[in-house]
Specification:
Blueprint lengths: L2 E7 L3 H12 L4 E4 L16 E4 L1 H9 L11 E4 L1 E6 L2 E6 L9 E5 H13 L4 E4 L3 E6 L4 E5 L4 E9 L6 H5 L4 E17 L6 E6 L5 E6 L7 E10 H9 L2 H11 L12 E2 L4 E10 L3 E2 L2 E3 L5 E2 L7 H17 L10 H28 L8 H12 L2 H12 L6
Parallel strand pairs: 1-2, 1-11, 2-8, 5-13, 11-19
Antiparallel strand pairs: 3-7, 4-7, 5-6, 9-10, 10-11, 12-15, 12-16, 12-17, 13-14, 14-15, 17-20, 18-19
Helix pairs in contact: 1-3, 1-7, 7-8
This protein binds flavin-adenine dinucleotide.
């Protein structure tokens, strides 16, 4: 048996970032399920792409991971356009007086950078094994790994994703609802440059179509598609080829005011993710803290799931780093500070994305003129736009 202050279950992006942040806050950490990220693809970009906000970038910089991501794999977003019902709302970095609205990066590229930073972090012990059992003992948690080994820790951190077992071991309940949509993801080569602009449109069937800009490769331009389509349509599209999907997306380009990008050519396979709205009843339990998708899952329309998870990491590291001498990292009063720190932002993001999903539901077509008016009004109200852009950037939680 080994004693650690913190055991993190889950070596995804959130778990790896948490291991680094907590070790930098002075804690001894064991990271379970720590496996090396996939190498870069032989050409082009991997399928999983994330839009990181300013708060996430700042955290990765502090963790000394950001600078490990090759500049050629990062696409800054200079403008954003959201279209619906014939109206549009636009944001641009210059008007918002920020360097960029977001940064588009492959999931694996972020994970490789975290792996590199973890190699130099003495406070973290990485274990490849999965945790298969957990019991609450007198001094903390006792965990069993699938290789037959065991360990003990004062605080158990769940970074084990939407089907979290840590959440169940901690006796924390869950509210979960399917959106009845599946996100189809694929990279496309486009005929014209994207101009560093992220495009998103609400479709008449309640879906959301997004094209995120990717870095140019030579004189080739690419975008990443995230199409949150009703399950039935998504299932039909998945039966076809990537070329057939490209043709369907091409038909939708006028919605995005992006006809110039046609023809689209697939630059990889099509991936699919069923979409859920999920929220744990609490982000803490007895000597347990939840981070990332184990605590909350949001619709990808806002591109904020990972951003919320990284901001959980920042909040937990700050709370644990500031605890009084002699206070256990698993003490109830310490964890309550973490729960309070995360309550507002997570609820606001869930309400915003779920509210938008409901507002653009297919049965509400009669609301279209009013929705269009609302979108145009917001577009003409710079202070409101600045507020929205600030919230999306996570600026309100930067410390
Ligand atoms: C289509 C789509 C697009 C998205 N786009 C964006 C975006 O642009 N921006 C953004 O911020 N977010 C985005 N998201 C959300 C983002 O994908 C998630 O929020 C993020 O991946 C959550 O990371 P995580 O580390 O919490 O969970 P996961 O990535 O699920 O990682 C969990 C890890 O825990 C491990 N694990 C599980 N059980 C155990 C165990 N018992 N023992 C040890 N290890 C275990 C798993 O193997 C895995 O490695 C998107 C999501 C979707 C579906």
């Amino acid at each position: 048996m080994v004693d650690e202050q913190v055991a993190i279950v889950g070596g995804g992006l959130v778990g790896k970032a948490a291991a680094l942040a907590l070790a930098q806050a002075g804690l001894s950490v064991v990271l379970c399920g720590a496996r090396d990220a996939a190498p870069p693809p032989a050409s082009g970009f991997a399928q999983r792409i994330y839009a990181l906000n300013a708060a996430s970038r700042q955290l990765l910089q502090r963790l000394r991971a950001w600078e490990q991501i090759p500049a050629g794999r990062v696409q800054p977003v200079q403008a954003m356009r959201i279209a619906a019902d014939g109206a549009a709302l636009g944001f641009d970095a210059y008007a918002q007086r920020v360097e960029s609205l977001a940064w588009i990066v492959e999931a694996d590229a972020i994970e490789r950078a975290l792996d590199l930073a973890l190699r130099f972090e003495r406070g973290v012990r990485g274990l490849a094994g999965l945790v298969v059992g957990a019991r609450r003992g007198e001094a903390g948690w006792e965990l069993d790994l699938d290789d037959g080994s065991s360990l003990r820790a004062a605080l158990l951190v769940g970074a084990d994703g939407r089907a979290s077992r840590v959440r169940a071991w901690g006796g924390i309940g869950l509210r979960s609802r399917s959106y009845g949509q599946t996100a189809l993801v694929c990279n496309f080569v486009t005929a014209a440059p994207h101009g560093a602009c992220a495009l998103q449109a609400f479709t008449a069937d309640g879906g959301v179509l997004a094209l995120l800009p990717l870095p140019d490769v030579g004189d080739e331009h690419q975008v990443s598609l995230v199409w949150s389509a009703p399950d039935e349509l998504a299932a039909r599209l998945r039966e076809g080829t990537a070329e057939e999907l490209a043709a369907r997306v091409q038909e939708q380009l006028p919605l995005l005011d992006a006809q110039r990008m046609a023809p689209l050519r697939p630059a990889g396979a099509v991936g699919a993710w069923p979409l859920l709205l999920q929220r744990a009843h609490s982000v803490v339990g007895e000597a347990v803290a939840l981070l990332g998708d184990s605590a909350h899952v949001v619709h990808p329309m806002s591109g904020h799931g990972l951003n919320l998870g990284l901001q959980d990491v920042q909040a937990l590291a700050a709370v644990l780093g500031r605890r009084a001498a002699g206070e256990s990292p698993g003490a109830a009063q310490v964890l309550q500070r973490y729960a309070r720190a995360r309550a507002e932002q997570v609820l606001a993001m869930q309400l915003a994305t779920d509210g938008l999903h409901r507002l653009y539901a297919p049965g509400l077509q009669w609301l279209a003129p009013l929705r269009a008016l609302g979108l145009s009004l917001v577009d003409h109200l710079p202070p409101l736009k600045a507020l929205l852009a600030g919230y999306a950037s996570g600026r309100s939680v930067l410390s």
